[in-house]
Amino acid sequence: MTNSSAPKFLIIDGYTQAAREELQAGGASVAADLYVSLLLKNAPEETVCDVIFPADPGVDLPVGEAIREYDGVAWTGCSSCVFSGEPGVEAQIQFARECFRQGVPGFGSCWAAQIAVVAAGGEVALNPNGREMGIAREIMLTEAGRAHPLYEGKPDVFDAFTSHDDEVTVLPTGSTLLSGNDFTRVQSVVVKHEGAEFWGLQYHPEYDLHEMARLMFCRMKKLIRLGFFADEAEGLAHIDQLEALHADPSREDIIAALDLKPTVIDESLRTVEARNWINHLVLPNMRR
Hints:
Elements: E1 8-12, H1 17-25, H2 31-42, E2 48-52, H3 65-68, E3 72-75, H4 87-101, E4 106-109, H5 111-119, E5 123-126, E6 132-141, H6 143-147, E7 157-164, E8 166-170, E9 175-180, E10 188-193, E11 196-201, H7 209-218, H8 220-225, H9 232-247, H10 252-258, H11 262-265, H12 267-270, H13 272-282
Parallel strand pairs: 1-2, 1-3, 3-4, 4-11
Antiparallel strand pairs: 5-8, 6-7, 6-9, 9-10, 10-11
Helix pairs in contact: 4-5, 7-9
C-alpha cells in the first residue's frame, strides 16, 4: 500500500555528462545523488525522486501537466554559467520558467538559486570578490529571513558549505532576500513568480565534509591558481583533514584548526532548509 501523503520530486541535475564524469573520477558524488539522499532523509517514507540531466543530448524535459505530476522540483548545483548564453543553459532557464507557470514549488542550491532568479527576470554575474569556496562564513539572516519558515530551527548567523564564482546581482520583482554575508550579498532568496515559489540557496546543504574534500580535489588546479592553496601538497593536506574529521567526528583538534561550526558538521542542522521546504511548502500544497 502506497503512502498517499508522500511527495513525488523531480530533481534537475544541470551538469554535463563530462562534468559528472570528472566529479566521479575524483571520488565525488554526482549532484543528483546528493539531492536524492538529501530529500529522502527529510521527507516522509515512500517519497519518490525522479532525476533528469537536461544538459545531456536528446533529453526531453517535461512540460505542462507532466510537471504538475510532481509536488516539488529540486535543482542541484552545477558547474555551468547561468549567463553563458549556451543553448543547454537557456533550455534550463526556460524549463524553470515553465515550472513557475505550472505552480510547482522549487528548491535548490547555488546554480539553482541563480536559475530561478534569472528565470523570473533577475540578473547574475561574476562575484567581484572572486570564488567563495569551502565554507561560507557568517551568513546572516535578514529580518525577513528570521521570520521565514525556510529557517525555522536555524541560527540567525551560520556557516555553510559553498562553491561558486557567480552571484545574484539583481533580484527579480516579487523576490525576498533571506540571507547574505560579506562575501556574497545574496546567500538565499525566495522567488515568487507566476504564482509559484522557489526557495533558493547559494550554499550547499547537501554537501558534507567528504563531498567537500572530493570537490576540492577535483578543483585542485583552479584552487591553487586562485590562491586557496600554495601548492598541491597544501591542498591535499587540507583535504586529508576534512576526510579525517568525516571518518572520526570526535576530532576536536581538526574542528578547532579549521574553525568548523555546528551548522557545518551537524547534519540535522546543516539540512534544516531542505526539511523546512518539504514541511512548509511542499506537503501543504500537494495536489494528490
